User: Fold this.
Amino acid sequence: MSDEEWAILEPLVPAPQAGGRPAIYARRDIVDAIFYVKRGGNSWRMLPADFPYWKTVYDAFRKWKQSGVYERINDALRCQVREASGRNAVPSAGIVDSRSVKTSQKGGLAATMAAKKSTGASIT
Assistant:
């Protein structure tokens, strides 16, 4: 992630909790590792050695996911993009498009399915 991207994300990523053991890894390194796994579809355990330990990255990802950090980041970034393009930060209306498409002239799925025969009935 570039310095410009991190400058936008840094205030949105939770800081380490005060008290207790000090953080070993920088938040930026953890976020970079999460992006690496999610972008490449790799396993957490397959993180290269130049990233923080996989368990540390996974624990941070899981904790942030459960606490709603990603939703807040997504909302904040969406608002920033909308404001930068000269629109309201929050949309005031939405449009849902529902289309009807004919599947066939005979009635769609019902016409293409063969009738099932009972296997439990005795044939005489």
In short: The mean pLDDT is 84.
